[in-house]
Amino acid sequence: MHISKFLTVGFLGTWTNLILFYILADRWGFAVLPVSTLTFIISSLQNYYLNHIWTFSDRTVNQPVGLICYIKYLLVALMGLAINLFLLWGLLFLFSLPLKVMAQAVGIAGGTLINFIGSRYWVFNTND
Which residue has the higher pLDDT, 13 or 62? Predict the structure, then answer.
């Protein structure tokens, strides 16, 4: 059950990320790597909150949304970001894509598995 909720939250975060990325990078022409980082931070805050109150609510019943847990979530998400930026850079370097947001979508997909495993077994782990 966690995985379907996690993917739903991730889908919402992806749309937040992609819409902001498209506006800032493709429409307004800002540099892709800083924009990708900014959209990552915004969507990670959204994802952390939704995962805390919905996806892993059975594990966080007695835990308020907090900074320590968000930092753990952010550390896991940073691993996903590293994968995202590597794929984004690689695809833009190797291919002439009509829209940079296509490479960003592939980058986001690349970090999803590590984000779920880290969230499930470390961030929202009831054994901590």
Answer: 13
- Which is more confidently placed, 38 or 114? 38
User: Which residue in the block uniquely carries the two structure tokens 């499930």?
Assistant: 120
Query: Cβ atoms within 10 A of the Cβ of 51, count?
Result: 27
Domain residue ranges of the chain, discontinuous segments joined by + = 2-123
Q: What is the DSSP letter of 62?
A: T
Average pLDDT, stretch 15-43? 94
Q: What's the CA gap between 23 and 74, in Å, rounded?
A: 24
The yes-or-no verdict on residue 127 having pLDDT over 80 is no
DSSP 61-98: TT----HHHHHHHHHHHHHHHHHHHHHHHHHHHH---S
